[in-house]
Amino acid sequence: MKILKIEFENINSLRGPQKIDFTDKPFSASSLFAITGPTGSGKSTILDVICLALFNHVPRLGKITKNEIIAKGAILTRNQKHASAQVTYSCKSGIFTSKWSISTNRNDNLRDYEMEIADLATNKLIDLKKSDVPAKNEALIGLNYNQFIKAVLLAQGEFAQFLKVNKAERGELLEKITGTGIYRELGKKAYEKNKDAGKAILQQQQEIEIIQKSLLNDEDYAEISETYKTQQAACEPLEKEIQRLSKFVELKQEIKNQQENISKIASEKKQAEESLKQFNENNGKSLSAHENLQEHAGDLRNWKQGKENEASTAKEITEIEAKIGKNKQAFSGLLSEVSQLVNTEVSANDFEMKLNEFTEKIQHFEEERKEKGREYKKLMDEFKLKTADLPINFSKNPEENSKQLQAIGNSAANRIKNYEIELSNFDLSDTEALKFQLKEQTEKTRAAQRANAKIDESDRELKRIASEKTTIEKQSEALPQQIKDLSTKVQFQQKDLENLQLQQKNQLLEARLEDLRHTLIDNEPCPLCGAKHHPFADQAPEKDSALEEKIALLQQELQLNLSNLAKLQANFESFDERLKSLQKEENLWKSASEEKRKAFKTNFKNFDFANEDVWEQNIAKLNEQFELIEKWEKEQKQFEIAQNAIPDQQKAQELLSDAFKIKAEQEKLFKGDDILDKNRLYHRQFTTLKQEKKSFEEQLKILKSRHQKLASELSILERELSSVLKEKGYENLQQALKNLMPEKEYLQLREQREKIQQKLSELNTSYNLLKQQLQEKQKLDIHETSAELQEQLAEKRQKLKDISEVCKGLYRQLENQKDNLQKLGEIREGIAEKEQKIKRWRLLNELIGDATGRKFNEFAQDLTLTQLIALANKRLADLSDRYIIDKPLDEEDDGLVAIDEHMGGQRRSVKTLSGGETFILSLSMALALSDLASKNVEINSLFIDEGFGTLDPETLDQTLDTLEKLQAESSKTIGIISHVDSLKERIATQVMLTRNGQGYSSITIKD
């Protein structure tokens, strides 16, 4: 993930539109830059903008809402009506722009914020709700908000504190920095799981106690069992007596039912006799006639069916003979059609041989043509691959391709000659070496250009300083006299004001006396002097009424002059301080300019100082030469490809010509699409016709034999039946068939007669049987009436019911005892099973669990710390070869330890390190956390906060060298937030923040 551009407007103290484009100059030339400016100018606001645009979060405020902005007065610049923050970044999925914005309505009330994200590959917004935009950025970048601020915004200050605290505080800080509080929660969960599992067992043990209290003791159980057996024994004679009485009640009811059934059957018997009489009257005669012919009914029906079969067989013979004729005609047509195809006479005997020979001949032509086609396709595919880089419009016609290749080759040859004329000063025998020399010369020229630009920058700064000094000197030249004149004027005005204020006091005193004058009465003494004559009681002296206005006006003038005097004095002091500061800056820039000029002459002996246009012309000329060589190589390659491809197209043309000739010869013999399909079709027709002919002939033979057999059998049957039927009074077979009923009708009538007869027989039998059974049951009956028996039965049943209720209560007690004992066993088995399952929770609780989660958290933090220290030492090796960070031993202070390699591996507490050494170690830890947080995501943008002010010049240079190396090796964009002057000199590319008199800031990009 890499941040490409930051754009925002009216965020905190940065009023108006602001833009930082990391893809443009100067960041494209140097991706290591500094964010500089005085305290409160808005350096951290740039980082806030990134988090706001991506996640709607700000590190110091958390999640941003409309109410948060209103309550804290944050984000939106004072007196502005809208604000926006936009970040363009690249990731594995492409390039995207994420934007956050907020504005006020017509009533100056703040609207809710908006967020959107656009895919720059399609220049379209992704359809998302504003609340889903942070999650989408998280998915694209591969980091959530907490990981992002640890991997991209390196909080070196937190690690400076982290290095020195004790183990307990270090664990809290590490949890806060890495966001690994999940391990504390896991420890708590293990403790709670074990506690919950124990609760379940305790609850079951309480159930056991409850059940045991409800169990019967042995004496009670034995007494209840004995009582239950006694009561059970008393039930047996009652049950027997109830059974006896029930049988007699049932018997009396059966006798009554039997008498009713006998009356009913007698009535049904009379109805059945009447039905049989009616049936005989309606159907008796026809049944008798049919039954007279019954023994010959089968022969008569066979004779009739034989006649029908004889006629049907004669009809089938006629149809088969017609089909044989059609088959013969179709067979003749097939032989004629195949003869025309193979162009020779074909008979049934040589049909397959001649057809197959013709098919093989056509297939041979087709195979030859396909082989030519395959060779042609292979050539054309190879041609496409070879000429992929040529500007050719591929054609299936090889002659057209050859013409294009010839034209391309001629054109390339002409361009090659032109390029060789332009490159006549170069040896083109080894173009790779030549391009390397030009590239090296271009890079050296660019380096000289940058060095020259830095010298020009120094000269511009010196001119700016001289100009500013001249301006300040002119502005301050008249200030001493103005201050002196204004001071004198102020002194006079102060004296005048004092005099006027004294007059005002006198007037106040006189005003009090004037009030007394109005109370004086002639001939009465004055309370002040005692006089009885009052000449001024009615006419007092005149008072100066404009005095207050004069004092107010003089005070305003004095206040204005004092304010102007203070401004003049402040301006004079400010100009004096600024002149001193400019003098220091001028000395520094002069020294730096001289050093840069010396370095330029030493490092770039073959170059002279020049303006930017000259440098750009020189570089453009080198680039032009480099491009010409590449164009020459490209044309040379195209010329060779074109020349080598022409023979292949000539061969392809020959293959096409051969294929067309083969196709022409084939079409003279056969113009169809597929000879094999034609061959199979004719073979199927030939086989089908032969099989049909054979089948028809066999069917005809069978039918003629069947017809002859039927005629003979019918003649014999007819003679036999005629003699028998004449004896029964029938003149011919047709007359007998008329008196013969259809078998179905005869069977229905016979079945109907038999059912009536059978029902009558059954009724007679049932009537006789019921009368006999009634006599036997009457013999078993007793003299008591049914009502008396019912009364006795009810009494016995009530007594049995009472005893049964007692037995049920006793049985329930015995069964409850049995169930409770069984339940106790099941609960005890369940407890044993739970005890087995809970072992893992108890073990897990022993290993990582406690009520606060501290045990597992400390273990996890120790692993995280080990990994973090290992990554930090890799980074520290690039910053300093003196120290290695390590965890403390048991006997040492529980703060982190620095192993001093320059002192023989001496272990020192990090608390003993200097500020600069502490910064180096904390920076290593911050970079390590970035590595840890982004282990699955490539991070190509880093921002490092304050702390460089604690470094000595040598260590600062070493640190910046390491950061430059990190930037060069990984193509990262690295921003350093600082106000250290020496760092500003070392890093040319700067994002400078300056404040104006109104409290707003602005951004300037400096190279």
Question: How would you portray this structure in words?
Answer:
There is one protein chain. Helix content is 70%, strand content 9%. It has 1007 residues and is α+β, with helices and mostly antiparallel strands. Strand 16 and strand 17 (1001-1006) form a beta hairpin. It is flat and about 180 Å long. The two termini are 25 Å apart.
Q: What are the segments in which pLDDT stays under 50 over at least 5 consecutive residues? A: none
Distance between the first and last residues' Cα = 25 Å
Supply the number of helical segments.
23
The helix-and-strand class reads: alpha+beta
- Would you count the extended β strands for me? 17
Give the biggest sheet: 6 strands, antiparallel
Provide a quick synopsis of the model:
This protein is of the alpha+beta class.
Write the layout of secondary structure elements.
Layout (H helix, E strand, L loop, with lengths): L1 E10 L2 E8 L10 E5 L6 H13 L1 E2 L3 E2 L2 H7 L9 E10 L2 E10 L10 E6 L4 E2 L7 H9 L3 H7 L1 E2 L1 H9 L2 H12 L3 H33 L3 H75 L4 H46 L8 H36 L11 H25 L8 H47 L1 H39 L29 H57 L8 H58 L5 H53 L5 H7 L3 H38 L5 H63 L5 H26 L3 E4 L10 E4 L5 E4 L5 H19 L7 E4 L8 H18 L2 E5 L3 H6 L3 E6 L5 E6 L1
Parallel strand pairs: 3-15, 3-16, 10-14, 14-15
Antiparallel strand pairs: 1-2, 1-6, 4-5, 6-7, 7-8, 8-9, 11-12, 12-13, 16-17
Helix pairs in contact: 4-21, 5-6, 5-21, 7-19, 7-20, 8-18, 8-19, 9-16, 10-15, 10-16, 11-15, 12-14, 12-15, 13-14, 20-21
